[in-house]
Amino acid sequence: MSSPDPQVRAARNHENTPAARGPVVAVTGAASGVGALLTERLAASAEVRQVIAIDERRGECAQAQWHVLDVRDPAIAERLRGADVVVHLALDLDLESDPAARSAYNVRGTQTVLTAAAAAGVHRVVLCSSAMVYGALPENELPLSEDAELRATAEATGVGDLLEIERLARRAPRAHPGLNVTVMRPAVLVGGTDTALTRYFESPRLLVVAGSRPAWQFCHVEDLCSALEYAVLEKADGELAVGCDGWLEQEEVEELSGIR
Does 6-187+218-244 carry CATH code 1.10.510.10? Predict the structure, then answer.
């Protein structure tokens, strides 16, 4: 027999909605860039119960529960308590940053988030790396297989931190049994984000190493957010490349951009 109390019936009905059964998701780096877009997207999702937003400043998503702190602070473990999934997007990929400080932030931050997530009882962490970890080598097959060996070198600009994050991702499930780690490797991001590669297209000329024939693959930030949401909802797992179908030759990029 159903309860005559409308409030009791409403509570029971809410418990049966997808959001009530969905995960509690924490997003680091939630105040700007991809993190802000993903936070808004998850907060509006009918399949997500709650969003915990973490950054060094409060962002604009009013539906999220905000915590203002540095991801390297061990106190983050307490902020993650109750979360089912953590999406770690608090990375400094600005090549104009001091290299030592940037690496310290990226690597230490990822280490702290993985350790804190395990301590808080989180069962899945989603990390965002880059397709650059595959390495831009002339003998690469086209298209490059998603499970291809990571052949980039740590000396390559901006890639060393990502390679270390990939190593942390592989070690984490062994160090913390019960913790699953999903890694997303987006191609060149476009769509309102500011990266070293988008700045490349703001240059008066597109510089190319003599004798090389670069092939370009792109990823729109909205597509990356879709992939991250799939990982949050456990519809995608493992180490995954994210990008558009196909690729563009250097000549096509020059023609489309109007830059040579």
Answer: no
Beta bridge partners of 124: 85, 180
- Relative to beta strand 180-186, strand 124-128 is parallel
**Alpha carbons 147 and 134: distance in angstroms, whole number:** 9
Q: Is 204 left (phi over 0), alpha (psi -120 to 50) or beta?
A: alpha
- Over the stretch 29-75, which tens digit does the pLDDT of each residue have? 999 999 999 999 999 999 999 999 999 999 999 999 999 999 999 99
CA distance 56 to 45: 24
Q: What is the pLDDT of residue 26?
A: 99
Dist CA 12 CA 3 (whole Å) = 10
CB atoms within 10 A of CB 221: 17
pLDDT in tens, 127-180: 999 998 988 777 777 777 788 888 888 776 679 999 999 999 999 999 999 999
- Taking the model in full, what pTM does it have? 0.85
Amino acid at 137: L
Contact assessment for residue 88 and residue 127, using Cβ atoms and an 8 Å cutoff: yes
Domain ranges of the chain: 6-187+218-244
Instruction: Break the chain down into helix, strand, coil percent, rounded to 5.
Output: 35, 15, 45
Torsions phi, psi of 126, nearest 5? Answer: -110, 120
- Preceding omega of 214 cis (within 30 degrees of 0): no
Taking residue 176's Cβ as centre, other Cβ atoms within 10 Å add up to: 17
